[in-house]
Structure formats: structure tokens, C-alpha cells
Queue: 3 jobs
Job 1
Amino acid sequence: MEDNGGGTKGDGPTVRQFRQILIWPLQLMPLPAGETIRNHCEFLEAEADKGVWRELQDEFPQDAGQYQERHYREFVSFLPHVQRFLYGERSSHSGRTTYGESPLRIFRRADVKRVRIRFRDDPTPMTLEVAHADLYFFFDVDVVIPVIEISAEDLSFARAQELIYRFGRAYPAGWSEDEVGVNCLEEVAWLDADGRTLSTSDYGAREKFMASVCRHQTTDIAAHWEFLLSPMVLNQREKPGPVRYRQLEFHRMPVMAYLAVDDPTALTRAEYIRLAFASAPGECLPTGSAFLDDFEARYCYDRFYDPSRKGDWANTRLLCSGQAFVAVGDSSKKLFTDSERGFLAQFRHQFFLVGLIAHFHRASLLMISDRMVATMSRLNRADRDSVSRFRRDIRIMLETFLRFTHRYYFLEISDLLPMRDIFSRWAGHLGTERLYEELRHEISDMASYLETDLLRRQAVTILQLTVVTLFSLIGTVTTGFLGMNLFNHADLPTLDRLEIFLVVFIPTTLVTLYTVMKSRRLAFFLNALADERISLKGKWHAFAAVWGRG
């Protein structure tokens, strides 16, 4: 259970270096009809002159001497197919309508430099650095992932826990009796480089969030997050905009955290459990003890953690629960704190991309699933136009799923054991493979339906043509038996021949069309005529049914 309290600073170990990265998958809504932009990110590209969002260029400068080693280490950590996904290829086509130099386009917010945070139990605000606030767009997939990284130094362990627990809240889960947002910080404010306030949270605006759910059956988001994502707008009628988004998951954003403490082995099992599940600070277990019997096996990656070893051994413990990925290590070991060659660089680059890929996979599958539900809900069997749109939407969805599978979905990302193991564990906790298989079966069922429906309509068409051909054969044989020269009209004037042609053509056309209209009933009559078990009376009834009402 999540508590509503503010916690205390406590006397726990000091977190010498603290990093927190929020990965927030969102679904992009279809662009309005008649809109000139073809991809959502093109709107931000057009807005770049206003100085809000600027596209990041790739990290491969023309001068190799400016290439940083941490980016090199990041690149070589992944398998070739993942490298193409993350970085593209120089020889690729550079157009944006195809899989260009990279399927990722990253836009960075230029004005947000710091964040001021106030806890409920402490009126004194705390200011943290904002390393970056980015938007990750993906080619041909209607998903955007905002990524926000904050950092601080010399935090109490309890405060670090509270930041992990409370900072990444898109909206409050509820309110306390004094109308304070449950599980949220008292205040969050974005600051510019000069310390000016850009936007402040409104978790206590109960009427705003209640009205959104009541009127639109969708949750609104807090004002500071709404500001950060602007000029993109939430899918709400009061705030129209060309680029709209929708939340895919609940109010807690997936989080990554890096904690460099004096002695990682001094943390208790309960503290590690609370970190793994991004729970509020506390001394006792956050859940029942029986539920946590396999905690170390399921959620701890202890390849580099051994409390019995001393000396140069850097005790580093990695915790992964899907919702949270937390790295805890020794602040005195450069191997853990070096931002260029140590684990801090790996956390901010390799492991961040591992988490980004894992959450991108899940978000894409949830997006396709949401589109499928919307397509089914719009189907009206009594409306032919609705049925036609349904067939078209299902084909588009099948194509989208196939493109996602062959371009983006992979189970192996690296030959490095830590990255491979963490990705497998991360995706397992997110249930990505299970979700993929369920969605694949559902789309396969829909594709089978379309194929069966197409065969049924083809069979009906063939039946109609067969009946029309059969009855046309009677007239063909008759005229052929009588001979083509029964009437000699070759010497008549042109107008007379045209009149005779129309006299024959119009009735023949009407009879053919009438035969098509009655083709199903005529087919039933022909089946009855061919069935030797049906009596003459039954065959007569079948013939009469051609013009009956039934």
C-alpha cells in the first residue's frame, strides 16, 4: 500500500551522488484531417525558432577527435541490429518518409534548467539540477517518450527515497482530508537558468482532476507536466492542438535511480526492497514477508554485489522491478562514480537505453492494443460504411504490427551479460513478451476474419456470375440454334439499326440485372432442382420462392 505521509529526513546513510531518470511513455493521437505536417515531430521542428524544443543532432561529429569515449562505449555495447535502431546508418536514405539515418528523433527543452521541490513535512524547498528534458519520437510509431533527468548531491537516504517515490507523478491518485494530493510532493516548480519560476504543480486542484474524469472519462495531468510537454496537448476538448497525446499507463512514471552511498552493505533488506519497488521511506517491509521470499532472486542483480568482499571490490547492487531500476554503489569507488568510464556513465547511457527500449516495446504494444479496441468499438454491422472502415483499419493495424515487429521488436540487445540479463529481467517484469503474443494472436484472428470475409464475398460473386451465366446460356444456345441470319438488317438505314439494337439491348440488360438480383434465390432453386431427394412438389416450391417474400 502507498502511504499518504511525507516521511522524515531520518538519520540514514548520505547519498553522495543522486540521479533520477523518468521514462514516461505516451501515445500520440492521429493528426487532424487536412493537417500539413505528416509526422508529429515536424510540428516541434517548425516551432524550434521559438526556443522551446530543439532537435538534438547525432552524436557522431565529422571530426572524430571530438567524439567522446562514453558514447563510443555506449555504441559498442549493443548488437548490430540494435545499433541500427538506435543510431541508424550513414549510408541510409536521409529522407524522413523512410527509415532514415536514425528512427529516433530527440528534441530537448532549452529553458528548463532546475526544479524546485518542497516536501510536505519541510517548508524549506530543495533545488535540484535538471540534466535534460527530452522527447523521444520513433519513426512510424505513434509513441513519444518524455525523458527527464535530475541530479543532486549529499541527500539523506530518506529524501532520496521520497524523490524516487513521489517525483514522477503525472496526477494525484486521490486527496487527503486537507485536499493534499496523495503520494505527491507538496510542490514541484520548473526553473530557468536564472532561477525564475516557469511553472508550478497543482496537485491540490481537486476540482480540475475530478472534472476531467467526469466530463471526458480521462485523467488530466498536473500543471507542471502539462507545461513541460507543451506545445503538445492532452487529448481534451478544452485544449485543441495539432499534436495531441494520451496516457498509456497509470500515474506513476517508470523511474531509474542512481545512488552513490558511503557503504552499500549497510543498507537493510527492507531498504533495498523499498528501493526496488520505488516505495516510500520506512523501516519495515512494504509488503507481507511471504510475498518477498524470492525477492533477491527476482528483483536483485547481484553479479557485482558481495558484502563479504573488501578492498578494491566495488559493491554495486542493481534492482529491477519493471516499474523501477535502481543502482546502489560505493561513493568512494571511482569505478562506480566516474561519469566518463565508470558505472555512472553506463547508467546514464547503456542502461538508460536498455530501459528506453524495454518501455518503448511495451508502449508500442499498448498503443496498438488501444487502436484495436477503438476500431472494434466503432464497428456497426448495420452500416456498410462502418464495415468498410473496419476492414481498412484492420489492414492498417496489421501492417503497423508487422512493421513494428520487423523494425523494432527484438529479444536480444547485447552480448554483454549484465545488459543482456537486465534487459531480459526488465522485459519480463513488464510482461512484454506475453503482451506481444496476446496481441499477435488477436491480430492474427482479425486477419483470418478479413481473409474469410474476402473469400465469402468472392464466393457470393462467383455464385451470382454462375447463375447469370447459366441463364444467359439458354438465350445464347437458342439464338445459336436459330442462326445469326434469321433477320437481315444489314441493308436498313443506320437509325433503324440503332433502334433495333436498343430494342434488344435494353430488355436484355434489364433481364440480366434482374437475374443478378434474384441470383441467390435462383441458386437455391438450382440446388433443389439438382437434388434427387427433393420431390417435384418441393422443387416447385423452390421455384416459387424465387419471387416470394421469404
Note: Confidence is low (pLDDT under 50) at residues 1-10, 91-100.
Job 2
Amino acid sequence: MRQKPVPKRPAPAAATLRARIDRALASGAIETAARLAETALAGGAGDPMLLNLAAWRREEAGDYAGAHQLLQRALALVPGDPLVLAAIAAVLRKEGRADDALVIIDRSIATVPHHAPFWLERGYIHDALRNWAAARASYERALSLDPALAPAMAKLADLAAKDGDPIAGRRMALAALALDPAEPTAVCALATIEIEARDGAAAQQRLIALLDRSGKGVKGEDRIRALTLLGDALDRQDRTADAFATWTRAQQAFRDLHRTDLAPADGRPSHRMFIRAIADQVRASPPMAPPPPPPPVPGAAATHVFLLGYPRSGTTLVENVLASAPGVVALEERDTLADADGVLIANDGTMPALDAIDADRLAALRAAYWRRVAALAGDVDGRTFVDMNPFNGIKLPLIARLFPTARILVMRRDPRDVVLSCFRINFTPSTAAWAFSELEETARHYDALMTLTELCRERLPLACHEVRYDRLVTDFEATVRAVADFVGLEWTDAFLRFDRTAQARGVRTASAGQVRRGLFDGRGQWRRYADPLAPALPILAPWIERFGFDT
């Protein structure tokens, strides 16, 4: 949560209403103050503090566009105001525009460098950007400025829990709760540690207390996460019916919070329809002829690998296996193709004729890609670079045109396990995460991406190799040797120590805990949930058969 608005100067609201707002703020009743601020605005008032309060209320309700509009009005009245800028940064982060948010919060920090809440927001933004070291440094800076800032301590506890350091995680979570017994991130960090230790009952008790505390419970993203973890705690106890019902509650809470900003609407197709639009264009276009190898790009990797498939299919495992080898740089789920997307893919999925793109534009897009890779992953010049993003199947038409010599690894896992796993995970808000918030839509989304991926493999000049999760966990060495041969890597026993690589790299996908523990066999999880999965099974049946998981 961003810093709550506080009054900075008198406002021309009615005296009695303003006095009520000031009393509410003084007593910590921010919700009451925000409601009164909206009343004042409706009556013609319009000072920055009132606008900031009203924006906070809309932000809490998930109306980020409305909050942003009010904050821009406030900024027009007080240009450069660091509190208003920080509020805008928080809203941008929640809108999924973390890069823009970082620029804005750094302006606030440059103006008031010793204000702890600004550093806390900077940590949240770096978390969203998956810049873990920068997030940790920002939280630590916030705590150095305000040792009683419980959310910063809680976020450090959460980072430790996700890094597989239960001792540090528990110590910092308890310290955060000593500062604020209702701190939700600290409670979730402790529950995460308990679930990984297979103590589902302790996590369940802790999470129920958080959700039901004083009849109010937690709201927003904190509620979604707590419900998701509660489902996991129930799953640990083999209470599958209760677990699935709780994950369903979590997904409904996600929908309730993000309906305004993520649900399909005029001008915003669903993520599934976006994928289908690209598939229709690939289907309608003649097969792409193999383009000539592109000219060298300064800073490019010697060997370029795209690792894709579908979320929860095993991409994180394979990425860390490959990252264990000398001379390999791997990047975890970053939008390296953002520049090409911005030029070549419209919001509805419409693309230009890729064969007709002129050489200068292609060269500029390749250079932009490698600059982005260098900024995110460091120097890859002359090395093997693994670009891991499960959703890059959507980008295969662009990959075929921009990087015709790239090697493509396609993960395959039982569709039933994949869909169940996607439904039970608390993903970062996005239009794809919206698809995962309803079981049958998850299955339809899977069908759409598999259809596009297979079309691209049939009609585009792509060098592909399938990696089956079931074979990886049952015949690890043979499967990895085949992958290494395809990529052009020599076998190394370091592949066998991928769990150490994961621990050192700080994996942050939903598979982090499993990968850090070594080779985890997650096959057949769906069988325990066969009854609630029943509505999705007819949609998945063709892919279960096609991929050979029906035996």
C-alpha cells in the first residue's frame, strides 16, 4: 500500500467538512477522510490533498485509471510535488507500468531523499520489475530511515522466505509483527515458510486469523495472496475439496479487484482472443520462407535460445539446468521483445506482413532487443543466452523473422497438471492472469496458445526441440543431454547441480521452492482434483491425446 495522503496546506473546502476530514486523518480513519474528500470534490472543492485522498480511495477499490486521473489533476495544481508523484508511481505500478513508476518514484526521492515511504514504494516497484537486489536494497534503506516501518521489514521477510531462507524469514517476519501485529505480508511470509515445511495446519490457522481479524480481514492483493496460501495449506493436509474451493475464492477476489483494469472490454480483447487473432494471421499467410542469417549485432550472444511453452510447464526447471553450465546466461521471464511488440503488434493482436518488413527496421529491432537483454541480464556477447518466457509462443512469428538462427525449446507437460497449477497460483496481475482466474477460461487459453504454437511450428522456419517434463523428471540425464546437443552445449556435471544454481540466482517464478529442492516430480497432481477439473477436461482432451499424456 502506498503512503496514505496527509494534508500539506489549507484547502478551500467548506469549513465544517474540512474540519471533519482533518479529524478523520488525525485519528487514522483514512477511509472516512477519503469518503469525505470525495464529497468535498463533488461540492466544488479541488485542492491537492482532497484529490490525493479521493485517488487513494479509488486505488484501494481497484479503479487505477480513476485514481490516476485525480492524481494528475492534483499534480497540475502542485507541479513536482513529491507526495503526489509518489502516489502516481504507486498507481502506475498497480497498472502494470512498473518501468514508468520507477522513473516517477526516483523523482520523489531526488526531491526528498530521506523519506522512508518513498523508498518503500521503490522496493515495491523493483519487486514488480523482478529486480530482487534493488528491491531488497530499497527496503533496507527505508528501514534505516524509519526502523518502525513494518511493511519494509515484512517485505524483507518475504524475500527471505521466497529465497528459501526460513530462519531469516521467520526472524524478520516476527520483527515486523512486533511493530504491527496486523502486517499481512509478514503473516504470509510465515505461512509460506510453514507450507514449505509441510506444516499446513499451522499455516492454515495463521491465515484464517489474518483473513478474519476483527471481522474486517485484509483487502485487495493481500486478501488474494492470503486466500491462495490458505488453499495451499489445505492442499498440504490433503483437504482437496476445501483447497480447490479456497483457490476459487482467491480467483474471485482477483476478479473483483481487477475487473476494471483487466477484464475484456471495448478496445481490450481477452488475452485468449489476442492469441487467436495472431493464430488467424499465421493461418491465413503463406508459409514463411527461411530468411537469410541476419548481419551481426554488437553485443549479441553467440548462441541464442528461446525457452517457452506455457506457465507451470517446467520452463523454470530447464532454465536453471541450462544456467548451470559455464558460458550460459539465462534470463527469467522478462519482456525482452517489448520494443518489437510496440512496433509490430497492435493491442488486438494485428500484425503487419512480417515478410515485408524492411531490413533497416529489422536491424533496429534486433539491436533494441540485445540492448534490452544487456540491461536486464548483463553481458552476453559471445556466450549462450537463454531467454525464458513461457508466453513467448505468442511471439514465435516475430522470433522467426527477427532471429532466424535462434534455437527454440518447447516445454511439454500434462495439460491437466498445467491448467490446475495455473488456476491455483497467485500471478502478478495481467490480462493473462485474468484468464487464469476462471478454470474453463484457463483451459481455453491453453488451447489457444497450443494452437498458435503448433501453427507456427508448421508454417514458420523455426528450429524447435520438445522437452517433456515427464521424461525430464524420470530420465534426467538423457533428457538434458538431448537438450544440450540441440543447443550446442557440451555435457557438464554442473547440470546435475541446478538446485544450487537456483538458490544462487534467487528464482522468483511460482516454481521457486520446487526448483531449489532439486528434482521434483510433479506429475499427476491433477488426479487428486479430477472432479473439480471435469469442466475443463473436454477442452484439454485433444492436447492430452496429441502430446501423448492419455496413457
Note: Residues 271-286+295-546 form a domain with the Rossmann fold fold (CATH 3.40.50.300).
Job 3
Amino acid sequence: MSGSIPNEFIDQLLDRTDIYDIVSARVNLKKSGKDFSGLCPFHAENTPSFTVSQQKQFYHCFGCGKHGSAIGFMMDYEGLDFVDAVTELAQKVGLEVPQTGGPRLDSGKNLYEITEKASRIFKNNLKKSEATIKYLKNRGINGETAQLFQLGYAQNAWDGIAKQFAPEQQSLLLKVGLTVSNDSGREYDKFRDRLIFPIHDRRGRVIAFGGRALQADQKPKYLNSPETPLFHKGRELYAYHIARKHSRDPRILVVEGYMDVIALHQHGIMNAVATLGTATSEQHVTQMFRAWDEIVFCFDGDRAGRDAAGKALLTALKLYRDDKQISFLFLPDNHDPDSYVCEHGKDAFEQLLDTTIPLSKFLLRTASQGLDINTLDGRARFHDKASQLVAQIPTGTFRKMLVDKISQLTHVEAQLPPQPEAKIIFDEKNLTPAKKLLSILLQHPGSVEHIPEDIPWHYIKDKRIEFIQKVIEICRQNPHITTAAALENFRGTEYFDRLGPITQHLKPLSVEQKILELQDIVAYFQEKIRQYRIRQLREQQLAEGLTPEQKQELVALLAQQIN
């Protein structure tokens, strides 16, 4: 389960939430048998493959594979993280999310109130700063765009912000990074005589600030808020909330600076975000894949840009998915997105987007850099470097195709280390007994009563068995739990994305059919466990001998085999 919100609260929330109400407010649904169907909001399609089940409180797309509960839908559709999705749904049904050690602090004060007020002060200052307004106009930024991004100005004063807040709020200013303290304990404004860029979270709340120097001799050129209870730069993307609201482009452009994002938006390219003074993180990639089908990393064409692209490649590999795409765009020398779009315009920039390099090509180019693959030595080194990169990609079609490409280029079969077994527990093409058991339990949790409680699962040391035991335990504890609520217990684990499709495999069963199916599955596992135990005992017998009790157990197990 993601976050620190208790499972009991999640169950209660999903019990009070009707997923049909949540989805139908955003997707046109029509009755289809006992479920509802419509065009998937997560990929382009002409024939509906998106279904919503009120019985399971679950959505699933047979086209792109997206699935989940009402919480998952809000995360995928609105681009929210887990806690924000839970909070929004809780507000709709009148529940209060249990405190999880979040940002509410001293005397009931809310840090968001501090940052929002500071943002309004900076914004009001901008109206009075002719020099800052002139600077923005010279950069091609009009008033409408400045208003959208809530640009502001920090006065050239030691207490321009501090004096706007009451004495009891001064400690909160320090906690959100608006003031700093020197060695003598004196507190003063962090941002002075700077153009201010408020930084928002995914819900559009101000959580931090960036400031650009307006004087040539003012150092550093850019100054950002420190890490605070509200702001963790490795998780946040500048203007994410604006890109989600104003663009329906399936691509998201990742650039390096505030002004790059703002200039692109000014010219009508609204699907851009920026990292906040840090390299692209795994959280960034995961967050963007929730909302967009393709990530385009846009870098300057210089050495620093190429280095940044290499780091982004290494981060993205382990998160790559067959239903998503990552590509790289390198701008001409001496240009960044801001300068290029201002000089050449929107059409020219969009033409550049047609020249992006797909991740597969960039990976192979990176692996072959500095090597002559026309020689045996070069091919050998290329094979080694490329294989190490591809080994980080999750198992799937894309990974297999890259392996084939490496073999084609080197005339040597690529040997990659196997992916962890937990990642490939279920083959979605074959309805194995394990998969069938999970499908029945997740769709009909109450049927757990037909599974004996004395099955000795512990004899098999296997993650698959441990996982089945966990599902059985959840169903025993709450036999009336919905499919969606059961699945939420596994959010944030390697099993979560595998479980949704499993629930769609099994055709509707009558009560009698379910009992018969479960009896067959239980018999199958009991036999597998018996065989496994016989093998354990025989191996021990050869190695060190058996105790009298173990000998009796082995005889009894072998007798069952004869019978």
C-alpha cells in the first residue's frame, strides 16, 4: 500500500465510493451487460475497450491494459499521487484522511497558507517593479502568461517578506525556506531583488519558489527553495499542473529551466515541464508516465546536454514500458528551448520534435560511442556495454527486440541476466492454476471459505506461494471486500500491475462452478506441495538421514502417491 494511510481507511473509502460516479464524470459510459463501457481515456481508440464494473468497483482497458480502483483512476486520469487521490475522494464522501505526518504543523498552522500568501505578495510586488516588467517584456513574456505562471518579484530588502507575517509565523517562514538564519541567529529573506517563479505541486498548490537574479553581478543566477516539509525537488516538476490542464498532447517535453517552460507556453507549446535543479529521477518518470504516453527529454546540444541525456537514459531504462515511449531531442548548438522558440517560432520548434531520437536508438548510440563496431574488439565492447544497459529494462517486447538488435549488430547472441522471478510470476497468455485461483479470489473474495485452512503452504519457499497466501489472508479477514479494495493492498509492490489483468481472465461462474474450480485448484496445489515435501525429505535422507517422525511422514506421503 502506498503512503502511510491505514488499509482500514482505504477499505472504508472505497466502500463509500462508487467508481461509476468517478469515471462517468470524466468518460462517456454506456451500459454493457452488467458493466459499463466507453472509449479509453488513456489511449486513442475507435472501438470501446474500456470497462467499468460496479460489482468489482474496478476499471480495466483491454486495449492499453490500464486498470484499478477509483483511487487508481484518479491517479491515472488526474495525474495525482496516491495520497492526493485518496484525499480528493475522501472529500467527496465526507471522510477525513487520518493524519500521516504530513505538512500541517505548529498551532494548527498550515504551511500551504504561508507559501500561498508569500506568492500573492511577490505577485503584487511585480506590478510595482517596472524593471522586472521590462525584463519580462524583453524576454517576450506577456502579462497573460505571467499571470498564468503567477510570476512575482522579491523586493531588494532584508525583510520584504518577513515583515508581512506575524511574529508567531516567523518560524514557519524558516521551515518553508522563505527566510534563512545566519551564524548569529538573525533571520532574513532568502529571495531579494529577484524575479520569482512559484513552484506548485500536482494539485496546483504553491510549495516552493525559484528566483532569478536581475542584476548581472548578482550571484547565483538562479536560487531555489531548499528541501522542506512541502518541497522535495526529486519528486516535483515545474509547471506539471499547467501542462496537465492546458495540453492534451500525448507527449510531455522535459526541459531544464523555468524560462524554457514559460517561453514554450507563450508560443503555444503547452506540454512542457522542467526538473528543479536536479537530474531526472525515477519519481519524475513514474509521475509523467501516469499522465502521458511519451516523454521527450529536450536538451541543449552541448556537452552538458549530452551528459544530462545520458543520466536521463539510465534513470528511464528500469521504468520503461511497452505501452509507453521515451525519446530525446537535442537542440542546435548555442540554443536552449527558450532561445530557439523565440528566434524561430512554434512551427520550427514542432518540426524539431519530428527529429527526436527514440530511446532504443539513443541507447545503442550511447553504447557504441567511441567504438569501431566494424572491428572484433569494438563489437565485443559494444556487445558488453549494450547488454548491460538492456538488462535494466523490464521484461517485455521492447527488451526482446533490443536484444535481437544487439545480436544482429554483433553477430553474437546477447546474454542478459534473468529478471527477478517476482516480476514474471504470471504469464497473461496462460491461465495457470495460480492465476485462476487469484482470479476467483479477487472477483469473489467470499469463496475463500472453500479453501482449507490447513494447507501447508510453508513447505514451498516461493514468492508466488507467499503472494497467494497474502491474498487468501486478505479475503479471510474481509470476505465482503471488493476487488478494487483487495487490489489496493498491493499498490506500490511488484504485484500490483500484474493483478488487474488477472481479474479479467475468468469467465462468469455460478456458485457450483466456483466450488468445483476451487476444489480442483486446491487438489492441484496439495499434490504439488506433497511432491515438494517428498523431494525435501529424500534430499535430507541422502544428506543427513531422517528422524523417526520424518520417516513416518515420508511413508505416509508415498502411500498417498500409490493410492
Note: Confidence is low (pLDDT under 50) at residues 101-109, 419-428.
